[in-house]
Amino acid sequence: MMRAAFLALMGLQLAASPGAGEETRSYVVTGDAIMQPLVGGKGDPARGAALIADRQRSLCTLCHSGPFADAHLHGTLAPDLTGVGARLSEGQIRLRVVDMKRLVQNTIMPSYYRVADEQGRRVATVWRSKPILGGADIEDIVAYLTTLKG
Prior knowledge:
Largest sheet: none
Distance between the termini: 33 Å
Structural class: mainly alpha
Low-confidence stretches: 1-17
Strand content: under 5%
Number of helices: 6
Mean pLDDT: 83
Radius of gyration: 15 Å
Helix content: 25-40%
């Protein structure tokens, strides 16, 4: 509750439902990148930073460490995201958030924008046929991660 109040005070509202209730839009993968934004325009880096830190929605810091708040809560299962904006292009970051399984088949990283085949899986009703994050959320995360240059 305190986190929600703080984010609201900062003008950073995070949607409570998966994928912000949106359907996924088509996108084109070129090599190891998605060059075009999933939604019109660039994302908001401040909102992306809030999403990265949100252990209920994005889950990024459960596995990744980086220059984020609460370092003692960061995971060590995945690469450190410090300097990711210097190592990867915007399009490369976008594909990794959208569907890392396209690049690494057995990754434990969820595909945040792909709606997986749910047949035979236990998927809560609220998550069925929806992406984990909406296109705008992903663009916000991409905008933030591209700022991490060092």
